[in-house]
Amino acid sequence: MTTDPIGIVAPASSPVSTTGIYTTGAARSPSQSMDSEVFMKLLVTQLRNQDPSAPMDSNAMIAQTTQLSMMEKMTQLSTTSTEDFSLQMRIAAANIVGKQVTYTGKDGATVTGIAKSVSFAGSVPQVSVGGVDVALDLISGITTASA
């Protein structure tokens, strides 16, 4: 593997090592996205390699720092949005317990039953209807169960 001036490792010609009796995969796969760490390495490299007689424009440096800050805030916002959506799905699933739900079965027929319980083990809540676990996003109708 080779390393460029800013510390990014270029992939080796062969990602698998075949030396010895064991075969091992590459230690790390290359990342296709820029994160704050890569951004800071680029900025530090720019500062190290700048011409002392013509230093980097302070406005350009402030603009780059602002871009980094905006990128980090957008990443935080995306994470928060994903967590909020997950919480909304959990609340919706919990609220349909005891209600009559309708969903399309594996054979294509419409199935109706009472939601007995909810499991939050996976990424999408599973609602137990008549002994069958149904993903929340497959439920097409909800009515209050008659007593």
Low-pLDDT runs: none
Number of domains: 2
Radius of gyration: 27 Å
Q: How many distinct beta strands?
A: 7
| Run of helices and strands | EEHHEEEEE
The amount of beta strand, in percent, is 15-25%
> Count the helices. How many?
2
Work out the helicity level: 25-40%
Could you give the distance between the termini? Answer: 70 Å
Mean pLDDT: 78
What oligomerization state is this entry in? single chain
Largest sheet: 5 strands, antiparallel
How would you describe this structure to a colleague?
With 147 residues, the chain is of the alpha+beta class. The protein has 2 domains: 63 residues; 48 residues, SH3 type barrels. The protein is built from 2 helices and 7 strands. The radius of gyration is 27 Å and the shape is rod-shaped. The model has no long low-confidence stretch (mean pLDDT 78). Keywords: Bacterial flagellum biogenesis, Cell projection, Cilium, Flagellum. Belongs to the FlgD family. This is Flagellar hook capping protein.
